[in-house]
Amino acid sequence: MPRVARAPSPARRCHRSLQRTGKAALALLVLLAILTACGRLPPPPVHPFLQEPFPEKLSDWHLFVGQSPRLQPNQRVIPYDLNTPLFSDYASKYRFVWMPPGTSASYRDDGVFDFPVGTVLAKSFAFPVDGNPGKNEERLIETRLLVHSKTGWIGLPYIWNESQTEAHLDLAPDPVPIRYTDSAGTRHDFTYFIPNANECKQCHENNHAVLPIGPKGRNLNKNFVYADGPANQLAYWTKFGYLQRAPAADQAPKVAAWNDPDAGTLDARARAYLDNNCAHCHQPGGTAGYTGIDLRVTDTGLRTFGVCKSPNSSGRVGTLSYDLVPGHPEQSILLARMTSIRPKEMMPQIGRSVVHEEGVALIRDWIQAMPVDDAACARNPSHPVPGARSRKPGL
Amino acid sequence: MNRSGVSFLAVLTLTLGCLGLTGCTRPTAANFEKRLQEQLINAKPGDVIELPEGKFHLDRTLSLTADKVTIRGKGMDKTILSFAGQKEGASGLLVKANDFTAEDFAIEDTAGDGLTVQAADGVIVRRVRVEWTRGPNTANGPYAIYPTQCKNVLVEDSIARGASDAGFYIGQSDNVVLRRNRSEYNVDGYEVENAEHVDVYDNIAAHNSGGIGVFNLPDLPKQGGQHVRVFRNQVYENNTPNFAPKSLGPIYYLPTGTGVYIMAIHDVEEFQNRIHDNNTTNVYVIDYSTALSAPIKDTRFRPFTDHIYLHDNEISGGDKSPDVRLDGVKALMQVGGGSLPDILYDGVVDPKIAAGKKGQNPGQVCLSNNGAPTFLNLDAANGFKHPRNDLKAYDCSLPPLEAVKIPQVVEGSDKATAGGQ
Questions:
Q1: Are residues A207 and A325 in the same domain?
Q2: For the complex shown, is ipTM > 0.85?
Q3: Does some domain include residue A21?
């Protein structure tokens, strides 16, 4: 994709120069000159690109100001967080939303908000810098954009350079080796696979339409500590003019925080986890809709979760027979696939390289706590043909 | 990268058309994968992506989402995409796009499925080979050529080998023609699962564990597969020991040495096939609940098998060495007095249909003019109490099913071709 070549405005040039100081390539004199010249100028506003060609540099969008890796949002760019996020190899994630002036999203009780054309959603992924455990220093790997163009949402992966001064659009990014020791002293060493621009759709597409996943009322309904103090996100978006028709926070649905025992029952937290880690594919119209298991939190029963269901699809793990066996996590393919990191077994099969130990523990506890009903998976009392047969001849 | 197989020239051909963001960097073997994936991402309707000759190693699933794109190689033995040791994703090529055409290349040794096409209207797979090169192995991917939830699909002149479920799988799809393909050394040669309006003809199914299966399973979004014609195929010596992993569900229970099988479906016509030397049984017509013990929770699912018309097939040489790995097969052999027939029918009829029509073949299973096959009706509905060899009771005919019409096949063109590759 060719880069856009436009004559930068003075403000823009100024902003660029500021960024370049990160390279320490400029003399102090030049730096001073720039600061004096630019000091009072506001940063240029967000520049949305709603059709091809998309800019090759993330900085051309003006979503962030100042120096990375702090990712300080530009004016009208609001950071947000989710009650239960997607697990991505323990990466830190920073999410932001921007809408064109004068526009706003419409609240929906169920599902993602109706965002206006021009909306830009950004999500950045960072890992701790190696050799500095406890110092909280991070390296940005990628910033993903979802842009609401006139013809629908488009996903764009921007990859940060080594010096952390710029991220470049790369539609088929190379894998990145990740190595660090976390604050608990655990060593992490793996290859991080950045989804390519087609792979975005495997998770974000439903019935051939690309959609955001996170910004739903139930997942945004929580407090966030903004620069001007903590506030409920639904209320803050409404006050800011980004959201219409949202109910008061205590009236709106709220999905449990998967890792906070005070936030919900084991059942509620497990369902929240599956909703945000699996259901974007595992629902009708999703990539895995054809398997017939539906992991959305909006379903209350267990029926759609694959109880005593043989996997009809390509999934395989050892000698297990059913997706979900109540009371028997060790027999449940659903858990086994979360525990695996082998390409053909693991779930999700993209966007994850390491096991989410805490997520696995949650789902294990959840399945363990279900009332055992061995008979349910063993026979079929409802079948109308008489003569229960114990030894089946096979298919 | 398989160095031995990569010619510099080959890589150059691909990168000549490269649309890389940073311009076309010097072509190296290592960026073949990245460049190809970029081409697939940037593809526009009408594009033809030409793959050069050579064997290329890829680490990750390739994906295509743009409509009306053709991917064309230089031949199924000349352009080889090898995924041996695949690091990410399960499929080789994953397509979610309408009017897709794949021609003249091979996909080898993927972690999971070979060529997956999902929810597409308009698919052509032509002269494509998908293979696991180590031969039958439980760790091979399940499906070689794998369209699901598609419409208007043509798969022809292609080859599948080594799949641990099915070489050619047509799932939850509508309007499909599978012709002149060769499927061998897979667990199942061809599977038509929860699909309707499917024609399977002039194919070879040999040396799999089972040849051609036509059936429905519960719990899939699309139920009610029906209207399947299987004709002029050669289905022989499907005696490779079943190597499906147990977790794959029903396929694990496919007896080695099954020729064609029909389960939980209505409106199936199979004719002019040569079905021989499949060591358990050549033809297996069976109710879902006879075959499998998995519970049925899906209220939409109908386990019965009826309106089946098998005629004018050449059937011979079953029961050479039934698959005693399965206790159930041993049990059947006892029912059959120590052996199994060419045509095995469980005799189960939907009680709703059977009510008041005892003995009149109410399920309309017609087995006629198939030479002189041995036959056994298991009487499974009555606890296998009265198994019998009453083939005559099933000598009847049903109206022929209509040919499947898809835009990719000009009407009548199928008549000109003769059996297999």
A1: no
A2: no
A3: no
